[in-house]
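Subject: for your reference before the review

Hello V.,

The reviewers asked for a structural picture of the protein, and I figured it would be easier to keep everything in one thread rather than splitting it across files. Below is the amino acid sequence we used in the manuscript, unchanged from the supplementary table.
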Amino acid sequence: MSFPTSIWTTIRALRKDPERVKDEVVRRYSAPVCEFIRKQGFSPEDSEDLTQDVFLRVCSEEFLEKVDPRKGRFRALLLAVTRNVVSAFRRRELAPTRDRRKTVALEGFDIPVEAEADPDFDRLWTKNLMAQAMRRMRSDAATSALKLQLEGRKYGEIALRLSKSETEVTNYIHRAKKRLRAQIESLIREYSGDDLVRAEIADLVKYL
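And here is what came back from the structure prediction:
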């Protein structure tokens, strides 16, 4: 099964506990969607509104009836829905005033098994995974060294900042990167069943 039961169990719990869905789905995955829409030339306000529309669709009964959890990847699915929402918004903006609607139905939208990849979206998705993974890592010298490196600091600067030798900094960063990878794999496993974890990492590793 490509989508783990947990992500769909969470989404299907919308009627029973909408706050949980908002916390576990929207909070985790809205950042790359919103930033991707923003890069299409939309204002911050419109980007937020369209992002909300994306997740309203993904959590809707109409959508859940269409989606096959055994096919496709969650990342590709969100990208496909995001593209559909953006296209629908642009069509609506070009339509005569009397034909404009706040929302556009999913009629005619065929959920693809795999959406065409988009490097910008994948880069933003990976950035979001890394941010979540870093927040999950325990606070210690190794994590601090890695954070400084990700900020663009050189090994000598990090050593001075942490009052450590460059050799110690090198070792710290090596250990922290292994922990970071483990956290990223854990995050991927939460939305992309075990059978697709390796393929998902292979697709995203170029952006790490």
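For the response letter, the relevant points are probably these. The mean pLDDT is 84. The domain at 120-207 is CATH 1.10.10 (Arc Repressor Mutant, subunit A).

Happy to draft the paragraph if you're swamped.

O.
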